[in-house]
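Would you mind writing out a protein's amino acid sequence and the numbers that encode its backbone to help me picture the idea?
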Amino acid sequence: MQRIRKGDRVVVTAGREKGRQGVVLRVLAAHVVIENVNMVKRHTRPNPQANQPGGIVQKEAPIHASNVMLFNPATKKGDRIGIRTLENGRKVRFFKSNGEVVDA
């Protein structure tokens, strides 16, 4: 089970974007792409077949998953995540600080 999923609100804990918050757009193998965080400029060539103009495009670059924490709305900070199995056999994520279940 993944600790960080698409749509989660996360806080960056390391690097030049430390302290920034955002929503996870994509989860790659060990990296995550966060909305409006770690923006890079990409110089692209025009592609007439795809009707794509050339130029400098700003887009989000991936950040390693170890450098982000899930945002806990109760404490208003980033929090560590654990995985717990319920009585019915379903696995859920929970915040380590207060034990609150993330996926209700």
